[in-house]
Backbone:
């Protein structure tokens, strides 16, 4: 199996704009091969890309690896300063989006068409962190235009609040469609686990929230459903169903799909699960379309499929072979970005190694898809890594009679586990994901230098799962709560925000050690 995960062995990069004009996406021009020693080059490549983009910065500007800007949408949160409480062409009460959304017509069309299709602005309410002196926020928004403001919640009503967040994505190459389905299904189970372990976004619109992840923010920011469609999953969501034959019996959540598309695929010989998956994508309408792409250029032109596929933002994507690609790929999308290249490399490499283990040991981590959805609700909560519990498989040996089992049989056994138990193991119940990776590495005869690097990455994740080290969200929260200007009122002031970012910048540059976040790494 070869893999892509945002790095390239030739240290060349591709850069793409994102919806936020202050954001940029970096990706490799070519993927790595399947050789384990190339994992030792990930962090170096990330540093190289950081240096590349730094060359485009002006004096006094810094490149920040940050999931969410804590005061996005506040008064004077940007330069040049602007008053955020000003109604504009998006009907947003809290944002002047035209000053910060990238000028590419695609992004303006997405925000405009989401709003037009749902026939009202997006509504985002995130529970506020209740401290001793926390007051009800947004009292100045209580008018006839803000009927969706929820008490004790942080109110946001613009797409940029979700799409303006950054993430760490990993794309893996599969050897064939069967392997791609297996990877898709197992990564679906791992998505909420890794979202919680990578949590790094506890503050929004100048307030500390009671969440550690951006999950509900971005889900609601891209929600184009009308009131009549509220029963189906939004465009940005967890996966709707497993695609492998082993997972079919565990698809216990109804999937809404376009029956005309489904029939066309079935008539062409495509299996039921894949046909249903693709047909589900086509219950959506395009969010943007360029005039030059209205008419397909040939029978092999898949632009219209990719246009629909790319705006169904599921946490795991099955990517079909296309011109210039190497075949079936799977994109892993739930992780939040970390401060340093070391951390980001650790999370990316962990996912690559774990998929190797799943395939080589023929593991079975699948649980009912409804339990995966429950794990998402748990994963975004404050301090989920230390206090949350997640449904996870206890019997990881794959049965040869998977189709004969029922969801409640012993062979499908799963239980609530802590993050520490999932990552590091639990007595005789579950061996732990990192011990399984270490067992795989011992058998793989990895060269000493590469093994040393991989062990550091695994130790970082072990310590964060156990609570020995803080997640980025926990670190940010502690920094804000301990700041001398903090008044036990959940407010992230301009001074607190500035000091937070300066400290994070020094950590990213390697100028400041952070034992609570990084230990001795």
Residues:
């Amino acid at each position: 199996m070869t893999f892509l995960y945002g790095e390239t062995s030739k240290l060349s990069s591709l850069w793409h704009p994102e919806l936020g004009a202050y954001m940029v996406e970096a990706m490799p021009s070519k993927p790595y091969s399947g050789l384990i020693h190339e994992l030792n080059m990930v962090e170096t490549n990330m540093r190289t890309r950081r240096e590349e983009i730094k060359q485009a910065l002006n004096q006094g500007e810094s490149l920040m690896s940050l999931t969410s800007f804590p005061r996005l949408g506040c008064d004077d949160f940007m330069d040049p300063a602007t008053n955020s409480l000003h109604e504009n062409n998006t009907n947003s009460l809290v944002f002047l989006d035209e000053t910060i959304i990238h000028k590419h017509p695609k992004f303006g069309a997405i925000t405009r068409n989401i709003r037009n299709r749902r026939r009202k602005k997006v509504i985002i309410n995130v529970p506020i962190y209740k401290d001793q002196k926390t007051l009800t926020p947004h009292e100045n928004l209580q008018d006839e235009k803000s009927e969706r403001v929820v008490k004790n919640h942080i109110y946001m009503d613009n797409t940029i609040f979700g799409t303006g967040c950054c993430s760490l994505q990993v794309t893996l190459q599969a050897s064939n469609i069967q392997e791609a389905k297996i990877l898709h299904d197992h990564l679906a189970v791992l998505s909420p686990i890794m979202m919680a372990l990578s949590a790094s976004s506890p503050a929004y619109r100048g307030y500390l929230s009671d969440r550690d992840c951006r999950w509900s923010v971005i889900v609601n920011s891209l929600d184009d459903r009308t009131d009549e469609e509220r029963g189906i999953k939004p465009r940005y969501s967890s996966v709707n169903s497993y695609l492998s034959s082993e997972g079919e019996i565990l698809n216990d959540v109804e999937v809404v799909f376009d029956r005309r598309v489904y029939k066309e695929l079935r008539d062409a010989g495509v299996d039921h699960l894949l046909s249903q998956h693709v047909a589900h994508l086509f219950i959506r309408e395009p969010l943007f379309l360029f005039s030059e792409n209205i008419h397909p250029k040939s029978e092999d032109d898949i632009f219209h499929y990719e246009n629909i596929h790319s705006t169904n933002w599921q946490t795991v994507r099955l990517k079909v072979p296309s011109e210039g690609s190497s075949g079936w790929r799977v994109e892993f999308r739930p992780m939040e970005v970390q401060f340093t290249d070391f951390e980001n490399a650790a999370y990316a490499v962990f996912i690559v190694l774990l998929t190797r283990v799943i395939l080589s040991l023929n593991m079975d981590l699948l649980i009912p898809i409804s339990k995966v959805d429950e794990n998402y609700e748990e994963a975004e909560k404050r301090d989920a890594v230390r206090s949350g519990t997640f449904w996870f498989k206890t019997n990881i040996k794959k049965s040869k009679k998977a189709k004969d089992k029922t969801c409640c049989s012993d062979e499908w056994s799963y239980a609530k586990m802590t993050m520490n138990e999932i990552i590091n193991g639990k007595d005789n119940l579950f061996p732990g994901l990192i011990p399984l990776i270490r067992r795989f590495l011992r058998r793989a005869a990895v060269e000493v230098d590469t093994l040393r690097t991989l062990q550091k990455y695994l130790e970082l994740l072990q310590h964060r799962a156990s609570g020995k080290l803080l997640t980025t969200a926990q670190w940010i929260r502690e920094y804000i709560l301990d700041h001398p200007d903090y008044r036990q009122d959940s407010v992230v002031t301009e001074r607190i925000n500035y000091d937070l970012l300066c400290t994070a910048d020094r950590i990213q540059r390697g100028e400041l050690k952070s034992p609570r976040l990084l230990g001795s790494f």
Notes: The CA atoms of residues 64 and 505 lie 7 Å apart.
